[in-house]
């Protein structure tokens, strides 16, 4: 089966699915997606997910039907050498050039995306693409690579001749010239030098976009109660964090992610999106992991992770690596610390500082009361002694002393109560701020819902008017309308409509179609001169 035949089978299956559900063809799958599917030849649903144009919902609904065509169809009995056209057992296959290249590309597509490591050379831009050669670092082998120019300018402008990289690419033979190349989808620098160049290029780009601007960053709340932690649940970072956070009743919500490897970037970005969407009660998010070189920290030096950190609704604290490690994610965060332990220490110290302040104020109040009581007792003792000598003078002195002591006690108690009132006001202000944010969100949702409802009502009214106009226009075109007014249609013995009296002969039977029912009639006379005048 050729690639063209396979494409036609897939289109036929798409039509069957669309007819079954009563939807348009493109809602099942676009022509472009079908063409990419034929090129990739996926064998599993996971392979199909890598083909451009297939989303999770479409794969869940139609993926199995598509794979049945590819895997269990006519291709099942054909080896790669016979994909061009049927091969006779008595003689070798003779391909046309196009058939041969189709067979080669189908075979290559079964490999799926490949990862190839080598050294960049002959890097140049031509039109909408960037071309370069990937050379084997230990031999003479090389392969041509193609990368879209927009992707190069947006993500990989740091590439240069001599840099060692790993590419994720799709192998393909260009049918027009028969040239083999790799269509590059993703580039990863290899080695400290290449990774450092990529780091500096991305740092410069994001700095220009304002990701690292201190004015953009939000303050960490003074009172932290609920903490979202993004890291590997099996790593040392989470153990160090939990060991140093202290037993202060913090609520910790851990999201397990990959912190290294091919899936790390996607899982970290997904964790940020999920926490911001589902956990509105979090006070901070902590992104942490242990130390390592640039190779180990690659996932934390990407634009997508930096964007997730910078655009997070919840303030972000980072503790990535060891003392000297600096990442793009940490530069984008609201508060950066050198290690996961330092992040835990900062949160714990905030709680400890608040408790110490309360304890100090309580101690000050207690000491103040003790001093006042001691002064009162001394004053009472002096008063008792002086009362025996000069009652009037003693009473005046006692009054002055007691008045002064009462004034000092009132002032001290006022400071104590003011401190407690300040603490209470801060807590109340924080709760009011969260309540106001929720009210504003509810108001915004209500306003958007009302706007959408008005828009839908207007659209339905407009559509109803258009349907009424179309219905009125179609009524005169109804073929049954003339019959209803008394006209009829005559069909000859051959079943064709009779438009001329010369088309029938005397004695033949004709069928007359009326508005209601039919009449079988025999021709007994013909008048060739009678015509209907317009």
Compact description:
The protein has 15 helices and 13 strands. With 534 residues, it is an alpha/beta fold. It has a five-stranded mixed β-barrel. Strands 7-6-8-9-10 form a five-stranded parallel β-sheet, with helices on both faces.
- The sequence of SSEs as H and E is HHHHHHEEEHEEHEHEHEHEHEHHHEEE
- Tell me the span between the first and last alpha carbons: 61 Å
Largest sheet: 5 strands, mixed, barrel
**Uncertain segments of ≥5 residues (pLDDT<50)?**
74-91
Quick check: average pLDDT?
Answer: 82
- Structurally, how many domains make up the residues? 5
Number of helices, where a helix is a run of at least 4 consecutive DSSP H or I residues: 15
- At the fold tier of CATH, the topology name of the largest domain is Rossmann fold
> Rough shape?
elongated
Per CATH, the class of the largest domain reads: Alpha Beta
* Lateral strand order in the biggest sheet: 1-2-3-5-4
Indicate the percent of residues in helices. 40-55%
CATH architecture of the largest domain: 3-Layer(aba) Sandwich
Beta strand %: 15-25%
Radius of gyration: 42 Å
How does this model look, in words?
The relative contact order is 0.05. α10 packs parallel to α11 (about 305-310). This protein has a 5-stranded mixed β-barrel. Strands 7-6-8-9-10 form a 5-stranded parallel β-sheet, with helices on both faces. A 3-stranded antiparallel β-sheet has the order 11-12-13, with no helix packed on it. The chain contains 15 helices and 13 strands. It starts with a helix and ends in a 12-residue tail after the last strand. Mean pLDDT is about 80; it is low at about 75-90. It is elongated, with a radius of gyration of 42 Å. It has 5 domains: about 5-105, DNA polymerase, domain 1 (Orthogonal Bundle), CATH 1.10.150.80; about 115-190, Nucleic acid-binding proteins (OB fold (Dihydrolipoamide Acetyltransferase, E2P), Beta Barrel), CATH 2.40.50; about 205-340, 3-Layer(aba) Sandwich (Rossmann fold), CATH 3.40.50; about 350-455; about 485-520, no CATH class. With about 525 residues, it is of the alpha/beta class.
């Amino acid at each position: 089966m050729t690639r063209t035949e396979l494409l036609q089978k897939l289109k036929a299956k798409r039509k069957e699915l669309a007819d079954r559900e009563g939807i348009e063809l493109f809602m099942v799958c676009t022509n472009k997606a079908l063409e990419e599917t034929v090129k990739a030849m996926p064998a599993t649903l996971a392979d199909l997910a890598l083909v451009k144009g297939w989303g999770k919902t479409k794969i869940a609904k139609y993926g199995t039907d598509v794979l049945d065509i590819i895997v269990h169809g006519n291709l099942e009995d054909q080896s790669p050498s016979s994909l061009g056209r049927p091969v006779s057992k008595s003689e070798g296959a003779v391909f046309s050039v196009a058939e041969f290249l189709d067979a080669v590309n189908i075979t290559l597509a079964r490999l799926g995306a490949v990862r190839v490591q080598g050294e960049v050379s002959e890097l140049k831009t031509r039109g909408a693409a960037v071309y370069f050669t990937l050379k084997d670092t230990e031999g003479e082998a090389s392969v041509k690579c193609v990368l879209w120019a927009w992707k190069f300018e947006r993500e990989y402008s740091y590439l240069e001749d001599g840099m060692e990289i790993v590419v994720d690419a799709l192998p393909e033979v260009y049918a027009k010239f028969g040239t083999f190349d790799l269509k590059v989808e993703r580039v990863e620098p290899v080695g400290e030098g290449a990774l450092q160049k990529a780091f500096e290029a991305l740092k410069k780009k994001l700095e220009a976009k304002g990701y690292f601007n201190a004015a953009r960053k939000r303050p960490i709340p003074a009172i932290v109660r609920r903490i979202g932690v993004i890291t590997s649940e099996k790593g040392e970072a989470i153990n160090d964090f939990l060991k140093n956070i202290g037993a202060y009743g913090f609520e910790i919500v851990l999201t397990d992610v990959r912190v290294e490897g091919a899936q790390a970037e996607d899982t970290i970005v997904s964790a940020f999106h999920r926490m911001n969407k589902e956990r509105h009660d979090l006070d901070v998010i902590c992104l942490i992991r242990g130390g390592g070189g640039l190779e180990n920290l690659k996932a934390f030096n990407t634009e997508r992770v930096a964007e997730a950190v910078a655009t997070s609704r919840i303030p972000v604290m980072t503790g990535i690596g060891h003392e000297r490690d600096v990442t793009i994610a940490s530069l984008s965060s609201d508060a950066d610390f050198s290690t996961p332990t330092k992040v835990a220490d900062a949160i714990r110290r905030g709680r400890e500082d608040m408790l110490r302040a309360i304890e100090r104020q309580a101690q000050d109040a207690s000491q103040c009361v003790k001093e006042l009581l001691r002064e009162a007792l001394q004053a009472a003792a002096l008063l008792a002694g002086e009362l025996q000598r000069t009652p009037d003078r003693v009473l005046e002195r006692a009054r002055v002393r007691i008045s002064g002591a009462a004034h000092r006690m009132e002032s001290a108690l006022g400071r104590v109560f003011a401190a407690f009132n300040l603490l209470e006001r801060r807590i109340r202000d924080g709760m009011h701020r969260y309540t106001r944010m929720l009210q504003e969100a509810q108001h915004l949702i209500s306003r958007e819902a009302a706007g959408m409802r008005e828009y839908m009502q207007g659209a339905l009214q407009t559509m109803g008017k258009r349907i009424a106009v179309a219905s009125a226009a179609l009524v005169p075109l109804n073929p049954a309308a003339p019959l209803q007014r008394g006209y009829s249609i005559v069909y000859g013995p051959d079943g064709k409509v009779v438009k001329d009296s010369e088309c029938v002969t005397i004695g033949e039977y004709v069928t007359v179609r009326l508005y209601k029912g039919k009449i079988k009639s025999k021709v007994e006379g013909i008048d060739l001169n009678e015509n209907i005048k317009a």
